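Hi P.,

Sorry for the delay on this. The queue was packed all week, but I finally got your sequence through. Input first:
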Amino acid sequence: MEKEEQEAIYGIWDQLVISMPTDYIATKLVQKRLLTLDDLDVLEKIQIQVKKNEYILKAVIRCPSPDTFNIFMDTLRSIESLSQELAAILDKSYQNHMQNNNRQQVIEAESIPKEHEWSEYDWSECLQYLAKNLGRKWKMLGRKLGISESRISDCEDDNRGNIAEARVSMLFAWKGSWGDAEPSSKKKELLKALANCDLQSLAYDISQKSW
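Then the structure:
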């Protein structure tokens, strides 16, 4: 699966996991050989529909066939009403990511004001500000920053019913994973990830320390 196709799925991940009719999708994808019978056995053991759909999407993204995205789109289109709407939303997400990649909308290092390195207090304020303003794209940002799906799910599960705290937990988990990396490089990485999530206004606020 191409990068833009993966990003299109990640872009509407929450809508897909909430709305997909799990049993129908799983059966169709087995018929089209994107899922296996072993996958069906795993799905039967998962009790929560959202978790089942997350498993399906992860399996689709891992599939090496170059036709995977089109097969998945056709499967969504084969279902009446809501799922047809999902197919249209996914197609729009794919087109948007293609356009964004073609325009190469990335904030370069030169656009960042020259300043002293941020203190721990600065980073804390920055991440708290982001957590309050990310909206529904918080998981997308996490993926752009290289946070695993399981870690994102852990942050959500540990803060069930409190999305704001889940966002805070995810962002500070990212900060805690830096190791010996230079904070300045992580600032650039954060700004680039925000831009790639179509959150340029937030990226600008962060670059200007406007929180």
